[in-house]
Amino acid sequence: SPYEVPNRITGIADNREIVGVYGPVGSQGAYHSYTSQYSSSQPYTQFQDSDYPNSQSTYLNSIVTAPSSSGTPSMAGYVIKPGDLQGTWGVINNQGLWTLVRRHRNEGDCHMMELFGINSSEDAVGFYWYDQSPKKAPCNKRVQYAMKVVPGGKFHDYPRIQGDFPVASGINEYGWMVGSTDDSGTGPSKGWSTAKGVSFKYWTFEMNANLSTQMLGVNAAGTVVGTYEDGSGNWHGFTVTNLFSPSNSLWSTVDVPDGNGTSTVISGIDSSGDLCGWYTGTDNTVHGFVAIYQ
Questions:
Q1: What are the φ/ψ torsions at residue 239 (nearest 5 degrees)?
Q2: How far is CA 288 from the centre of its chain?
Q3: pLDDT tens by residue, 115-163
């Protein structure tokens, strides 16, 4: 259930509805997604399962407020082995209607697409592999591309992002995007940002290129959130305001007070400045959190 650990709050909508994931992420077992609505009297006490039907695992990463007429939000993420299909597929839940997303056909087990961000126009961003491995061979002849998919299934790839293994993680209603890239595939990662008519810019916390910075979300005001690594190998959450006007940007560290100091991830931010994410507690277990802006 959503009360289980490990637990991650992956996205927050402008009405403060959240989406999250519980279960051991990775090869250790199945994981499941859920949503919960906000109430000022009893915040986040009712949970709704939100798994793609007949899939091994569902990982929803982002959520946007529903149109007033429907009451049902839209979400983006990915699923593993949906139905009788192989591989990992991007998925969009458009106000209750599930859509699987793929970029190339006939890749079988090598099919890999993960979506991370979605905006009010239902543009979704993430990454995919273009794999040319022979059938029944290891999936080792692949190139990873950051991408955006818009309603109707039209794709935009971003091959000009520097470094290996680029990911697009967040997109706001103006189309401003953020993500991360790993220059070597094993070394420190950098955050990146772009907007319409603006070239890609690359960022590291405190301009330290020797340590990793991952940008994970952006709201309508252009405030960006993510996580960065310190010199001891611990990870801290961060916010940066006015990133798209760098002369006025302000970077701030965010650590959950109940954590053990080893890991805080800020995964989402809404238009009010409310934050969501996860942290490692003093029990050495991953817990989700929401921080309501006061």
A1: -125, 150
A2: 14
A3: 999 999 999 999 999 887 777 667 777 889 999 999 888 999 999 998 8
* pLDDT tens column, 209-219: 899 999 999 99
Give the up-direction half-sphere exposure of residue 175: CA atoms within 13 A in the CB hemisphere.
Answer: 9
What is the torsion angle, in degrees rounded to the nearest 10, for the CA atoms of residue 230, residue 235, residue 241 and residue 245? Answer: 50
Give the residue among 217, 223, 255 at the shortest CA–CA distance from 237: 255
Residue 12 CA: distances (Å) to CA of 7, 9, 271, 272? 15, 8, 10, 11
- pLDDT recorded at residue 275: 98
Whose CA is closest to 33, among 58, 63, 53, 66? Answer: 58
pTM beyond 0.90, yes or no: yes
